[in-house]
Amino acid sequence: MGADLLSAAPLLETRDLAKSFRGLRALRNHAISVREREIVGIIGPNGSGKSTLFNLVTGFLKPTAGAVYLRGQAVTNLPPAQVNRLGIARTFQGTRLFAQLSVLENVLAAAQLRHPSSLPGVLLGLPTARAARQAAENTARELLALTGLEHQANLRAASLPYGDGRRLEIARAMATRPALLMLDEPAAGLNAGETHALAQLIGRLRDRYSVAVIVIEHDMDLVMNLCERVQVLAQGQVIGEGTPAEVQASVRVREAYLGSDDAA
Ligand SMILES: Nc1ncnc2c1ncn2[C@@H]1O[C@H](COP(=O)(O)OP(=O)(O)OP(=O)(O)O)[C@@H](O)[C@H]1O
Fold first, then answer.
1. Which atom of ligand 1 is nearest to the CA of 52?
2. Is the C-beta atom of 44 inside 6 A of ligand 1?
3. Is 92 domain-assigned?
4. Domain count, the chain
5. Claim to verify: residue 70 and residue 102 sit in the same structural domain
């Protein structure tokens, strides 16, 4: 019975989640339920609480109230590394790569979190350590191929063009083999062609790894083409949720967001 209840639980759920910064209510009464393999968009004007929501779910911020559940298990207040180990990976608005490491090493470092090998094992050349290292490298190389970065594997991350760096961030997040990938404005700074390719990449990752994706995005074409469901925030509150078509048709959403300059 307990196991049935757990397996019926959504992949991610927030309940009554809230965060205030010295009296400023950045997020309140937040609730969302995301299924396995679902691609969900979070949209809203600047300052509406989108990044705060990501920081709360991934452990970078502690909520003022409310709870976050992953497959029915409370992950509220856990540190980011533990949330990641339990299956949630994220990217940030700006790139946060290891600039001096190679492209492959960036992804490998993340993959090794998933396939850890003890230092004594590595130093002694134990077979288990070699197997873990090999598994991590296989994961890393597969992700570089999927993200179209295999030919840049040995370049320093710092030398990558901007768009490639953004894809490397995604490869690195995926290397921890999450059940949920959270992308914070992945199309920011990309041109139309790169944005189109990004949407295809996110779809491929979902198909290949059965990962669910939550994406914060201002690029409406990306949101409308990619997302199966969209939640709209304004001033820290959910003001709409539905299919992209439903959200686009909502008068309340249009007034709060789509008609504003932010949607341009
Ligand atoms: N660490 C912080 N300390 C104080 N205030 C903060 C902090 N982080 C966010 N805020 C405030 O909380 C509100 C929500 O910010 P948040 O970054 O979540 O919005 P957003 O929807 O992600 O905006 P954007 O689209 O500009 O990234 C804003 O008023 C912001 O100034």
1. 18
2. yes
3. no
4. 2
5. no
231/107 same-domain check? no
User: For 18-39, what is the mean pLDDT?
Assistant: 97
- Cα(186)–Cα(190) distance, rounded to whole angstroms? 8
Q: Is 149 helix (H, G, I), strand (E, B) or coil?
A: coil
Which of these three, 142, 165, 188, is where a domain ends? 165
β-pairing verdict for 39-43 and 212-216 = parallel
CA of 251 to the centre of ligand 1 (A): 25
Q: How far is the CA of 106 from the centre of ligand 1 (A)?
A: 28
Residue 251 maps to a domain: yes
- CB of residue 186 inside a 6 A radius of ligand 1: no
Structure tokens at 197: 């390719």
Domain that holds residue 123: 98-165
Is 52's C-beta closer than 6 angstroms to any atom of ligand 1?
Answer: yes
Residues 102 and 83 in one domain: no
Atom of ligand 1 nearest to the CA of 48: 21
Beta-bridge partners for 234: 237
Q: Same domain for 106 and 236?
A: no
Ligand 1 contacts CB of residue 94 (under 6 A): no
Q: How far apart are CA 14 and CA 172, in angstroms?
A: 25
Whether the CB of 51 sits within 6 Å of ligand 1: yes
Please report how many Cα atoms fall inside a 13 Å half-sphere around the Cα of residue 25, on the Cβ side. Answer: 11
pLDDT at 128 over 60: yes
Per-residue pLDDT for 4 more than 70? no
Mean pLDDT of 138-148: 95
Q: How far is the CA of 231 from the centre of ligand 1 (A)?
A: 17
0.80 surpassed by pTM? yes
CA neighbours within 13 Å on the CB side: how many for 245? Answer: 0
Kindly state whether residue 93 falls inside one of the protein's structural domains.
Answer: no
Q: Same structural domain for residues 198 and 155?
A: no
Contact 67, 15 (CB under 8 A): yes
